[in-house]
Amino acid sequence: MHKEPVTRELFDQVMVPNYAPGSIIPVRGEGSRIWDQEGREFVDLQGGIAVSCLGHSHPGLLSALHDQAEKIWHLSNVMTNEPALRLAKSLCDLTFAERVFFANSGGEANEAAFKLVRRYAWEHHGPEKNEIISFKGAFHGRTLFTVSVGGQPKYLEGFEPAPGGIHHAEFNDLESVKKLISKEKTCAIVVEPIQGEGGVMPGDPEFLKGLRELCDEHDALLVFDEVQSGAGRTGHMYAYQMYNVTPDILTSAKGLGGGFPVAAMLTTAHVAKSLGVGTHGSTYGGNALACAVAQKVVDTISQPDILKGVKARSDRLCKGMMDIGERYGVFSEVRGAGLLLGCVLTEKWQGKAKDFLNAGLDEGVMVLVAGANVVRLAPSLIIPESDIDDALERFEKAVKKLTA
């Protein structure tokens, strides 16, 4: 059968137009390098938006997928499976958690978390205690509930009426939270320890500690959305460990499967009781294939030398980007933690982050944006140092051309 060539034009003919992908169609990846249909090579600092934490075609992930594919792909939640139980046990051993719920995406893990906090409050305190406090600039997913808890109104436009009982405070401003919180009505505070889509904005340690205290005082649960900051990204298994602030519920996805769709909501045995039989579910959540791959990811990234290596790579990348920023007057700071970094554009270049992404592609390096004023980097946690140097060299060429 004759196959039609696959081109970027085909996207416009067959896909819903909610994305605007670039003209390049990657067809192969190995480690931190990607090749497109024409055989052009790129150094990947996007990491699939903090997903491909072990790069592309990682031998360990390939073999985990292959081994499980020959055994069992999918059952249903009428039965459990070995990979799901092993993975849940590993996540409990590595974190504060005692119970795990599996889903397929960060949005789904957050949806489960937000339903759980309401149900917990309903069971323990009554139906009036149903309000959620989250933050401006936050991103928690694209379902109607998660996009309402998120703090970026543009993503809700045209989809109202939104679920009620949600208030948005100012990130890193404890006073703004105190004005909204109440013992009678607040069931939870939801926060990204490092705001990802909101511009790679790290939470202030005192602010996050203060949120924990406010929750304790007001009988509210603290939810950490670690979809982007988790799974080794900061050089800690989860960012809450870096901050020394323990939430009641934590959500994980993106890097958890290294590119295979899988997500988890982690919580304590006490809080988990509120999601009793029949209260929530997911057809594919806890799928044997996904859990087998995620197990290999977790076993790999939780090794102390891998987590230490994240720090070294982070320092190298930060320094390189700051040097470029200073030489060409484009970045005022590089912020974030580990390999979740945001290069903040100087006043002169405000609003032009996408131009840097495009200029980078022309020189064979893939970077991301986080809003219009931040160039975001989220490469593989094991990217070779030589690839970092190569990427920096290519990115400098791009910046040189852009600023000429």
Would you mind describing this structure in some detail?
With 404 residues, the protein is α/β, with parallel strands linked by helices. The protein has two domains: 8-57 and 304-403, Aspartate Aminotransferase, domain 1 (Alpha-Beta Complex); 71-301, Aspartate Aminotransferase, domain 2. The chain is 38% helix and 18% strand. It contains 14 helices and 17 strands. The chain has helices at 8-14, 47-50, 59-69, 82-94, 106-124, 144-149, 174-178, 205-217, 239-243, 269-272, 288-301, 304-328, 353-362, 385-403, and strands spanning 26-30, 33-36, 41-44, 99-103, 131-135, 166-169, 186-191, 194-195, 201-202, 221-225, 249-252, 263-267, 331-337, 340-345, 365-366, 368-369, 374-377. The protein has a seven-stranded mixed sheet with strand order 4-12-11-10-7-5-6, with helices on both faces. Strands 1-2-3-15 form a four-stranded mixed sheet. Helix 3 runs antiparallel to helix 11 (288-301) and helix 13 crosses helix 14 (385-403). The protein is globular, with a radius of gyration of 21 Å. The relative contact order is 0.16.
